[in-house]
Write a structure and sequence with these properties.
Radius of gyration: 21 Å
Structural class: alpha+beta
Distance between the termini: 32 Å
Largest sheet: 3 strands, antiparallel
Number of helices: 5
């Protein structure tokens, strides 16, 4: 069985190569993305959070995923546009049904898995508010969190 390529800590102060355990990146562009050993990771994360700067920590052993790359791009664009870091990125479930595929009745929609009951911003309505992506009837919408999201919050945000 072939060995995986080792990833080393990006800190040049180490006297010899040290295995990295994490990839670190800062959505507010405070620092350049890097790899870190256990000691450097703990120090970097602690200092970043103490200073109020978000830091994304990923395993060094796995290659960067398309989702992680997209999240970083969104965070960078947001920071450039608004001069403030992104606090959260909500990803839709990959199997989320499109508008046309949703069940006909509200009762059937409420039986859908909690991961589909995510917030959608209604910037056109009065007042502006967060609405549930799947809880609606003809001419009626429900604010978020809806009953399903409130009862099963852990499933809404953890997949």
């Amino acid at each position: 069985m072939a060995d995986k390529a080792q990833t080393f800590c990006g800190n040049d102060d180490h006297g010899r190569p040290v295995n990295a355990i994490a990839r670190l990146s800062w959505p507010d562009l405070r620092y350049k993305p890097t790899t870190a050993c256990i000691g450097d990771m703990q120090w970097s994360v602690r200092n970043s959070l103490d200073e109020g700067h978000p830091v994304l920590v990923e395993p060094a052993s796995e290659p960067e995923t398309h989702v992680a790359k997209a999240m970083k791009e969104v965070a960078v664009l947001h920071y450039r546009a608004y001069s403030s870091p992104v606090r959260a990125i909500l990803l839709e479930a990959p199997d989320m049904p499109c508008y046309d595929e949703l069940p006909e009745t509200l009762e059937e929609r409420r039986k859908l898995p909690a991961r589909f009951h995510i917030p959608r911003w209604d910037g056109d309505g009065q007042p502006n508010m967060w609405l549930c992506a799947v809880c609606w009837e003809e001419g009626v919408v429900y604010s978020w969190p809806c009953e399903v999201a409130a009862a099963n919050g852990g499933e809404v945000f953890a997949r």
